[in-house]
Each structure stands twice: as structure tokens, then as C-alpha cells.
């Protein structure tokens, strides 16, 4: 529920409370219940995502600039998007997920993290404008500071029309007696030495908001890592770590209530109703807009479909990884179908759009892991699989739906606390993204570089080139998102797939297999170590079988095998007809020359490509003397 409330609060500020926390809780509950009952992969948890939030902000700014009805145009776009998603299901387009590789997934995930961090810091700076402080204050003259409301010197036509609608004029308004909100409502002007550009100086609110913001971030980080601390039993630490965000919001809201500073709070109605009084639960797709806007909505709907498809399918690929040992089917088509249907319903009701949330889904899967109960002392429990069921997801969204009747509690949550949660979600999600691990290699000497699996097989300069290309794509995504061409932002997300395809002309398949693999780094490294250990064990077992059987088998060309019965070979050091290969080799001139130059030998590193490198491996082990028959066998 915490991320849903956070996204709802940010969406409310971005859309002037046309869609806020109340709509987010109601929409998430309704969509989640239907999805949990009928989806193909109920382990996936739906929620609001960063790219969808960016699209909502772009759409609202566009509607405000051209004086269009935001909710009506959004309903038209949502219906078109639902239709296009259903068309994708009907044409088997979910099979295209095979083209979404680590290159695309990491660039998309990094963009989401940067959006989270940027939005949180931007909202904190906005508080500085809403609650200004006087940087040139004189402590001795504080008793002379005043701030009052006055008639605007040059009222605009919009202000005059507003006065006319309220049947008031500038002469019959008692400007000096107006409160801050009333002065803003009548477009008054603040005058006085204690006034800022947007109202009176309120330094305590701003600095208290900053304290709440950073305290929330650090407390979330501390509680999330509490699992590794030495205090309390293991289960208690695990519970504290799993509910870190919820406990942080609860703690900071309680501290804010006890301190009493009037920090900005989450805007929710007193009862179950839309946040704004001028809207209902059903939205007319046409509204006050022109008829042609319903047809023109197809273009932004096409862009929105790209975002919805990639957001849903990237998360679905992560949930359905082989390492989770799932026994039931993936259900890509059915999942997208349910998302499309509920997206159309939410559009008509003026609710946020919900797709698969990566962080929430991974947390849900991890909480359902099944491990072996009995293990040897000091041995880690063995991972057996995931409890695949629909009950947990269903109960999550049922309880979330009941929370809409707790608005009297939700309105005590300070907005800076939600901004801090947003910052934590962005910063914590950066961990595990290989792109940022590779960025650290630029300023790191070779001897201090970590033992990363791809550094074993790919030259470092090619790793740097791959990183620069991926970083350039990420920078272009951010520039387009922040520019006036932000409407085409989803097209650039799709373009990442084609850019990745072009890399096949510069990197070979072996290099791309290590740099652009969806399997997690630690998992892949562990698998390679296990395969190496298994190969060594098989080699030792084969040598032991040869020693016991007394027969050496040498494979020849054409599939023939030469069998040498070493047990039947008799060796006598006194027999001159028998030659000891080891002794004769040690007497040779080549061997003596090598021995003389051993101290002056230099190790030469081959600069050949990995394909041309010849590896020689020697296994030296103690062999019982009873199994040694002669000198040739020992060699």
C-alpha cells in the first residue's frame, strides 16, 4: 500500500488533484482483485510505475497548454490503449519478449530509478518556493517584520472575470483581513518585509520538511538492511526488513504529529468520494473537448501502448525466470489481456493505470520461497521452489480496498515523507543493475577490479564501449523526456530493441552472451563454478576407474579406441631392453636447456582472441603406491 499512496500523492500534485491517493487506492484494489482471480501469473503484483507517471505529467501539461479536458482526453487514450493491447494479445505479440534483453531491460530500469530520484528532489525544491524563507533577515528587526494582503496593482482579465463571478469588486474586499488562502483565492498581492514572492516566509515548515525527507530515506535504508544486523531473532529481523517502508512512514508520521509543525499533508477526502468535488466516478470520453479529439487520441494511445507492453512484459519475464523453478505456465497473453481490460475500466472511471510493478512483484516472489527444512549444521537451506497460488495477491488488494475507509488516518501522512520513500525506491533499485557496476570500472585499476564474470571472457576495452553505448541511450531517453518532444518518449524506449540488434555487427555472439544475458551476475558465476567443479570431479573419477581396471583407453581418429592393458606390462630397472621415458627425457639436451633458463623465463601474455587461446590444464594428485605399476604409468 505504501508505494500506491506515494504514487497517488505525486500524481495528485502533477494533475492538481484530479487523480490522487483516494483514486489510486480504489483503482489498485479493484484492478488487483480482478487480476489475482483471472490472470495467468498471479504472482505478479500490479502497481503504478515511473514511466506511466511521466506519461501522465506530459499529458496533463499538454491539456493545460491547449485548454483541453484532461480526464476526458485521458479516457479516450485509455480506451484506445486497451483496444491496442487486446489486438497485441490476438496477434500473439507477446512472443516479442524474446527481443527484450539485458541491454533494454537495464536502460529501462535505470531510467525508472533516475525518474524516481529526480521527481523526489524536484518536489523538495518546490517546497522551497511554496514555503519560502528570508535569506536576508535581520534578527534585531524581527519585531518590525509584517506581511499582509493587498489589492493587485494590475489585475488581469482572468482576475476581473473571477471577481465578477463572485459578485465582488476590489473596493468591497477587505484585503487586510484576508487569510493566506483567501488572498490566493482573490489573486491578491502580498506586501511587507516578511513576505516572499508567493506568500509569507515560513522557514520552519521548509526546514522541517527537509528533515522529514532525508530522515525517511535513511531510516528506510537502515530498516531494509536490518536483516543483516545482530539484534533480535532472525524472524523478527526479517519482518522489520520486509516492512521497512511501512514502518518508516508510520514512525515519521507519528514524529511529525508530535512535533506539531504544519508540514504539507496528503490530500484525501474525509469520506469515500473523488478527491475533487467537480468530478465523479465516471468520465465522459468526449466531455468538453471537440469530437475529433477522440480520433486524435489514437496517436498518444499508440505511444502509451508501448509503455504498457514493455512495463508489463519486462516484469513478467523477471517473475517467470527459470531460477524461480515455477511449475505452472507463464500466461503472458492472459496477463496482458487482463491488464488491457482493467485499463479501459480505470480510464472510464478516472482512476490511475496499473501494470506489473517490478519491485513489488520480486518482493512478492521472494516472500513465497520454499526451502528445505532439514540440513546439515552450517549448511544453507536448499531452495525448492515458489508457492504458486492466488490467495496472497487477492488478500493484498482486498485489504488495500478496505483502506479507502481509513482516510481520517491517511491525511496525517506528510508529503515530504512520501518524497523520501520515492527517493529510497529509486536509490535502492540501482543495486543489481549491471550498467552502474560497469561504470565504476572506468576509474578503477585492473588489480582492484572485482572478479566479475564478464571480465573473464570479454576484453576490458570492449566492456567500456558497451557501457558507453548503453549510457548514451540512457542520456538520450532522459533528454527527450525533459524536452518539448517528450510525447515521443515511448518510441525511444522501443528504439532500444533495435539499437541492441545493431550491436551484433560490432560484438561477436560470445561477447554479447556474457555482457547481455538476463541471468543475474551472481547466479551465472555460481553456475560456472559448479560446472568447473563437476568437470574436475568427473575427470578424477575417470582416472580412478582407469587405475582400478588397469586399462588405458586412447581415442583415435575414425572413432576407434586403443586399449593398453597396463597391468600386463612388467617393468624391471635392471632389464636393459626396457627404456624409462622419464629418465631419458631428463637427460635430453632440450630438457637441460629448459632447466638452465628456468630462472630467466618470462611469462608472455598471449594477445590472441579468446577463440584462438589454447588452455592446458594439469591435474596433479597423490596416487597410492599400490596402484602404480611402472614408471611409464606414473608419468
Topology, please?
Blueprint: H1 2-14, H2 21-38, E1 46-47, H3 50-65, H4 70-90, H5 102-130, E2 148-150, H6 157-165, H7 180-185, E3 189-191, H8 203-224, H9 234-242, H10 244-259, H11 292-296, H12 298-319, H13 332-349, E4 355-356, H14 358-367, E5 369-371, E6 383-386, H15 391-402, H16 407-410, H17 415-429, H18 434-439, H19 460-482, H20 489-502, H21 509-515, H22 521-549, E7 551-555, E8 561-565, H23 581-587, H24 589-596, H25 631-634
Antiparallel strand pairs: 1-4, 2-3, 5-6, 7-8
Helix pairs in contact: 1-2, 1-17, 2-13, 2-15, 4-12, 4-13, 5-17, 5-19, 5-20, 8-10, 8-17, 12-14, 12-20, 19-20
* Estimated radius of gyration: 34 Å
Report the sheet with the most strands, covering strand number, pairing sense and barrel closure: 2 strands, antiparallel
Estimate the helix proportion, in percent: 40-55%
**What is the terminal-to-terminal distance?**
69 Å
* Contiguous helical run count: 25
On the 0 to 100 scale, the average pLDDT is 75
Number of strands: 8
Uncertain runs: 599-611, 626-635
Beta fraction: under 5%
Assign the structural class, choosing from mainly alpha, mainly beta, alpha/beta, alpha+beta, or little secondary structure.
Answer: mainly alpha
Strand order of the largest sheet: 1-4
Amino acid at each position: 500500500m505504501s508505494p500506491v499512496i506515494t504514487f497517488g500523492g505525486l500524481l495528485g500534485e502533477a494533475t492538481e488533484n484530479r487523480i490522487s491517493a483516494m483514486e489510486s487506492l480504489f483503482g489498485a484494489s479493484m484492478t488487483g482483485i480482478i487480476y489475482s482471480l483471472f490472470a495467468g501469473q498471479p504472482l505478479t503484483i500490479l502497481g503504478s510505475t515511473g514511466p506511466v507517471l511521466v506519461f501522465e505529467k506530459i499529458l496533463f501539461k499538454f491539456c493545460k497548454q491547449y485548454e483541453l479536458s484532461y480526464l476526458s482526453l485521458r479516457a479516450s487514450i485509455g480506451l484506445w490503449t486497451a483496444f491496442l493491447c487486446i489486438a497485441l494479445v490476438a496477434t500473439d505479440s507477446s512472443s516479442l519478449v524474446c527481443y527484450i534483453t539485458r541491454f533494454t531491460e537495464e536502460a529501462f530500469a535505470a531510467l525508472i530509478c533516475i525518474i524516481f530520484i529526480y521527481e523526489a528532489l524536484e518536489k523538495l525544491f518546490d517546497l522551497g518556493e511554496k514555503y519560502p524563507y528570508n535569506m536576508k533577515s535581520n534578527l534585531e528587526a524581527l519585531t518590525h517584520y509584517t506581511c499582509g494582503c493587498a489589492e493587485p496593482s494590475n489585475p488581469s482579465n482572468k482576475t476581473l472575470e473571477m471577481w465578477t463571478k463572485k459578485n465582488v469588486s476590489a473596493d468591497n474586499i477587505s484585503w487586510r483581513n484576508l487569510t493566506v488562502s483567501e488572498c490566493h483565492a482573490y489573486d491578491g498581492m502580498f506586501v511587507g518585509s516578511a513576505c516572499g514572492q508567493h506568500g509569507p516566509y515560513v522557514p520552519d515548515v521548509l526546514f522541517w520538511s527537509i528533515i522529514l525527507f532525508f530522515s525517511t530515506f535513511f531510516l528506510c535504508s537502515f530498516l531494509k538492511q536490518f536483516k543483516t544486523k545482530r539484534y533480535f531473532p532472525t524472524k523478527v529481523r526479517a519482518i522489520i526488513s520486509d516492512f521497512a517502508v511501512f514502518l518508516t512512514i508510520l514512525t515519521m508520521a507519528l514524529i511529525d504529529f508530535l512535533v506539531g509543525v504544519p508540514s504539507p499533508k496528503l490530500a484525501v477526502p474525509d469520506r469515500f468520494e473523488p478527491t475533487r468535488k467537480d468530478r465523479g466516478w465516471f468520465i465522459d470520453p468526449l466531455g468538453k473537448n471537440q469530437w475529433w479529439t477522440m480520433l486524435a487520441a489514437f496517436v498518444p494511445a499508440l505511444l502509451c501502448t508501448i509503455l504498457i507492453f514493455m512495463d508489463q512484459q519486462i516484469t513478467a519475464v523477471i517473475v517467470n525466470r527459470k531460477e524461480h523453478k515455477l511449475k505452472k505456465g507463464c500466461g503472458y497473453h492472459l496477463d496482458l489481456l487482463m491488464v488491457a481490460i482493467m485499463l479501459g475500466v480505470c480510464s472510464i472511471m478516472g482512476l490511475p493505470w496499473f501494470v506489473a510493478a517490478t519491485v513489488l512483484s520480486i518482493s512478492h516472489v521472494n516472500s513465497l520461497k520454499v526451502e528445505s527444512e532439514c540440513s546439515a549444521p552450517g549448511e544453507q537451506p536448499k531452495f525448492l521452489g515458489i508457492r504458486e497460488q492466488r490467495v496472497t495477491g487477492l488478500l493484498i488488494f482486498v485489504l488495500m480496498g478496505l483502506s479507502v475507509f481509513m482516510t481520517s488516518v491517511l491525511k496525517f501522512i506528510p508529503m515530504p515523507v512520501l518524497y523520501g520513500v520515492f527517493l529510497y525506491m529509486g536509490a535502492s533499485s540501482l543495486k543489481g543493475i549491471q550498467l552502474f557496476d560497469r561504470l565504476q570500472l572506468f576509474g578503477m585499476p585492473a588489480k582492484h577490479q572485482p572478479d566479475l564474470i564478464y571480465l573473464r571472457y570479454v576484453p576490458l576495452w570492449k566492456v567500456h564501449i558497451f557501457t558507453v553505448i548503453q549510457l548514451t541511450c540512457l542520456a538520450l531517453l532522459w533528454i527527450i523526456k525533459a524536452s518539448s518532444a517528450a510525447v515521443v518518449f515511448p518510441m525511444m524506449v522501443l528504439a532500444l530493441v533495435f539499437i541492441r540488434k545493431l550491436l551484433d555487427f560490432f560484438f561477436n555472439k560470445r561477447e554479447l552472451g556474457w555482457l547481455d544475458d538476463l541471468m543475474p551476475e551472481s547466479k551465472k558465476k555460481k553456475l560456472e563454478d559448479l560446472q568447473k567443479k563437476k568437470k574436475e570431479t568427473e575427470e578424477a573419477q575417470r582416472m580412478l576407474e582407469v587405475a582400478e581396471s588397469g586399462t588405458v583407453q586412447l581415442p583415435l581418429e575414425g572413432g576407434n579406441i586403443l586399449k593398453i592393458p597396463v597391468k600386463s606390462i612388467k617393468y624391471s630397472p635392471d632389464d636393459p631392453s626396457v627404456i624409462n621415458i622419464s629418465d631419458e627425457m631428463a637427460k635430453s639436451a632440450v630438457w637441460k636447456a629448459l632447466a638452465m633458463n628456468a630462472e630467466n623465463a618470462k611469462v608472455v601474455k598471449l594477445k590472441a582472441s579468446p577463440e584462438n587461446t589454447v588452455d592446458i590444464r594439469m591435474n596433479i594428485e597423490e596416487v597410492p603406491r599400490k596402484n602404480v605399476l611402472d614408471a611409464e604409468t606414473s608419468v
